[in-house]
């Protein structure tokens, strides 16, 4: 379909007949993302607030459909790439973000650590180096003053504000570590997401744990078991061994649902719930 054909359809969006509007809306939504530039141009050229609202709603529906498609595709074929999963979630709130900026910032932080990395450093020394670069020099910290803010779950905002929740900080920390071949992975601990440093000679065995929300504090298995005991939970493998990236993205979405519930944004809460249901039907 050409731009002129898109524009001809868009020109009918202000029709007062709801049935006609819904038919046109459906036709535009089925066109997919390629119609968005024409919709945005019409929004800019219009002085009709009613028409602009309709255009905004259609653009959002198209973008939301694309996010659902991207998320399902990621689960099926690309779930080894955690950053891509995080960016798909990011598109829900920031659909027009230049994602290359996120990749560039993570690459910059990785270089900052790599510059000081020495081959024969011990695992503890490597963690201390990561902590120094990320927390002291870059200024990353837990957002204790606005813990439930939705922005804590979007990686671009975490990089911009240098604040986040336990899982977003842990994701960033592990992404940089893994890009340096440092075996640090996520632990889906209830109530608090942490990381594990795995033994290089035995990737199935945890060497120690890292509490990123507490500026990279090193923890032992006894600390994790004690925490689980307080929650009346067993020290099962699902809580003490690394989880996969799908479990991480599910948890990010659950955090977003809780955040939107906290600020009484029912519409966004329901939409993020739909995203979660796509990848976690149970």
Automatic annotation (TrEMBL):
Family: Belongs to the UPF0162 family.
Pfam families per record: Transglut_core2 (PF13369)
Protein name as annotated: Regulator of sirC expression, contains transglutaminase-like and TPR domains
PANTHER family assigned to the protein according to its UniProt record, in alphabetical order: F-BOX ONLY PROTEIN 21 (PTHR31350:SF21), SI:DKEY-261L7.2 (PTHR31350)
Protein SirB1 N-terminal domain sequence ranges: 101-254
């Amino acid at each position: 379909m050409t731009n002129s054909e898109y524009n001809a359809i868009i020109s009918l969006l202000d029709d007062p007949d709801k049935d006609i509007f819904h038919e046109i809306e459906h036709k535009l939504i089925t066109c997919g993302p390629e119609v968005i530039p024409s919709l945005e141009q019409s929004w800019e050229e219009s002085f009709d607030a009613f028409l602009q609202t309709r255009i905004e709603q259609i653009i959002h529906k198209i973008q939301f459909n694309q996010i659902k498609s991207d998320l399902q595709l990621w689960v099926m074929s690309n779930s080894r790439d955690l950053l891509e999963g995080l960016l798909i979630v990011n598109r829900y709130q920031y659909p027009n973000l230049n994602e290359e900026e996120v990749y560039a910032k993570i690459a910059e932080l990785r270089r900052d650590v790599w510059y000081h990395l020495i081959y024969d450093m011990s695992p503890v020394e490597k963690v201390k180096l990561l902590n120094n670069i990320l927390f002291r020099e870059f200024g990353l910290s837990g957002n204790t003053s606005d813990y439930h803010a939705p922005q804590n779950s979007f990686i671009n905002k975490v990089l911009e504000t240098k604040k986040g929740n336990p899982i977003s900080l842990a994701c960033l920390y592990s992404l940089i570590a893994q890009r340096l071949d440092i075996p640090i992975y996520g632990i889906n601990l209830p109530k608090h997401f942490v990381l594990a440093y795995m033994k290089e000679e035995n990737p199935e065995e945890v060497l120690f744990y890292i509490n990123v929300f507490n500026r990279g504090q090193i923890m032992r298995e006894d600390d994790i078991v004690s925490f689980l005991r307080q929650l009346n939970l067993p020290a099962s493998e699902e809580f003490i061994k690394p989880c996969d990236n799908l479990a991480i993205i599910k948890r990010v979405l659950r955090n977003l649902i809780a955040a939107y519930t906290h600020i009484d944004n029912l519409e966004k809460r329901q939409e993020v719930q739909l995203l979660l249901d796509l990848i976690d039907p149970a």
